[in-house]
């Protein structure tokens, strides 16, 4: 992740103050990838307030965290970001 390079911890923690900042960042990454529903392979969707994306056909929701490194973490996305940062810079 290029964003982790050349930053110090202070800048990093300022950029990612809360979980939502991290989610917005991840969603920004994901939004560059065209949506494709994992169930019906439909490609149009609506984006919800919590950054999830909802397939226009079956109306099921894909989490903003799906397919990202933070999908499976149990301790919160922001903490996961800091772990990534430490691995990238340490
Ligand atoms: Zn679908």
Q: If you had to describe this structure to a student in words, what would you say it looks like?
A:
The protein has helices at 9-15, 19-31, 77-89, and strands spanning 45-47, 53-55, 61-62. The protein is mainly α. A 3-stranded antiparallel sheet has the order 1-2-3, with no helix packed on it. The relative contact order is 0.20. The mean pLDDT is 80.
Radius of gyration: 15 Å
Ends distance = 14 Å
Order of helices and strands: HHEEEH
Q: Stretches where pLDDT falls below 50 for ≥5 residues?
A: none
User: Order of strands across the widest beta sheet?
Assistant: 1-2-3
Taking the sheet with the most strands, its summary is: 3 strands, antiparallel
Total number of β-strand segments?
A: 3
Beta-strand portion reads 5-15%
Q: What's the rounded overall pLDDT mean?
A: 80
Count, helices: 3
Q: Count structural domains.
A: 1
What are the bound molecules?
Answer: zinc ion
Global shape = elongated
Structural category: mainly alpha
Q: Which percent bin holds the helix content?
A: 25-40%
Keywords:
binds zinc ion; 37% helix; 90 residues; elongated; 9% strand; mainly alpha; 3 strands; three-stranded antiparallel beta sheet
Give a quick rundown of the structure.
It is built from 3 helices and 3 strands. With 90 residues, it is mainly α. Strand 1 and strand 2 form a beta hairpin.
Please describe the topology of this protein.
Blueprint: H1 9-15, H2 19-31, E1 45-47, E2 53-55, E3 61-62, H3 77-89
Antiparallel strand pairs: 1-2, 2-3
The structure holds zinc ion.
């Amino acid at each position: 992740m290029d964003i982790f390079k050349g930053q110090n911890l202070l800048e990093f923690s300022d950029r990612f103050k809360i979980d939502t900042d991290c989610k917005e960042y991840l969603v920004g990454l994901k939004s560059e990838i065209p949506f494709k529903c994992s169930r019906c392979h439909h490609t149009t969707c609506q984006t919800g307030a919590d950054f999830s994306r909802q397939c226009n056909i079956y109306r099921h929701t894909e989490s903003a965290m799906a397919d990202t490194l933070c999908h499976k973490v149990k301790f919160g996305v922001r903490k996961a970001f800091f772990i990534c940062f430490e691995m990238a810079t340490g």
